[in-house]
Amino acid sequence: MENAQDSNAQESPNSEAQNNVARQLAILDVTARADGHTPEEISAMLRDAFARRGAPTAPDIWLATVARDASVGTPYVVSREAMEEAARRIAGSQPVSNAGALEAGHALGAGPATRSGTPTQHGQGGPPALPPGVRRIVIPSLLAEQSPQLRGYLATPPGHGPWPAVVMLHEAFAIDAVMLRQVARMAAAGYLVLMPDLFSAGGPRRCLSATFRALKSGKGRAFADIEAARRLLLDRADCTGAAGVLGFCMGGGFALASAARGFGAASVNYGMIPNDVSQVLEGACPIVASYGGRDPLLTRSVPRLEAALKQHSITHDVKIYPHAGHAFLNDSPTGPTLLRPVLKLITGAGPDPEAAADAWQRIEDFFGQQLKHETEN
Questions:
Q1: Fewer CB under 10 Å: which end of the chain, C or N?
Q2: What's the CA gap between 172 and 8, in Å, rounded?
Q3: Residue 74 three-state SS
Q4: C-alpha separations of 357 from 210, 328, 362 in Å
Q5: Assigned fold of 134-376
Q6: For the chain, domain boundaries
Q7: Global pTM?
């Protein structure tokens, strides 16, 4: 076997392939239930799942690697063939429950997976090409806690400022061409936009776990990076002094978590909703939020979000698009090519131009009311 060696050295190639598929299905199932568990607990869950599916027990060192990935919602890829067969079975007979497989499908925390299953740094072949009007910058050291050499992508609207600002937060698949087009799009709508690279300290492979821990705990380097980006924008002469935050996927979770941290408006796009959302939203700015109905792992928590917004009397616009899935605001599929079929099957992940057009209009109207009008009054 390519990634996990079994104690049974006499297995036939066909048996070995079957074991790989069984392991892959078990990994998807356990990743779906891993949230809130320690790596040690996840390793035990994996052993049980392997036994249920008839796969031989794997070495502890390999289980630890799989458990680490699962702890941040990333299904480890045993092999390309095993993942493809697992996706086929999910599509055909749903051996992994849809509700359970959902979180596994949210491999929204890993860089692209190689054939060996080891995440590789996104953009390994070099940084993506920049859309017109977008440029790379290094964000100065404004906070002791921020990433050293914090990178970002800045775009200014056409014409002459000043303009309101938007800190835009990327998906867990890091900054790619799709994310940069989102930066350019918001700038064209009349905003000074900066997307900080939350993986500046070492790329997604090295920063992923720490970034998700920060999101879950509400503190850490990622929040310092977001605050540094906000301060840089507000200090510019071409900024009106109003700033919003807008995020996608992982970035949507950070946008929600940052709504009470000095911003005038927040746009939460299929972002994770924490269990303590009411506490997180105490003193929060107005929020516009969009979710896809085919992404039930997240949409099932939307009522809690709406209840918290009403509890704190926060101006809000929350909408679920019934036929859209995760990442529907993107204009092209994102994430590891190998995982896209699985993500599509269990989260509906992918572009939805009709839902995206409506969501963008809502975002622009909401930000226009909260940020642009604020500077006019």
A1: C
A2: 37
A3: coil
A4: 33, 10, 9
A5: Rossmann fold (3.40.50)
A6: 13-105, 134-376
A7: 0.75
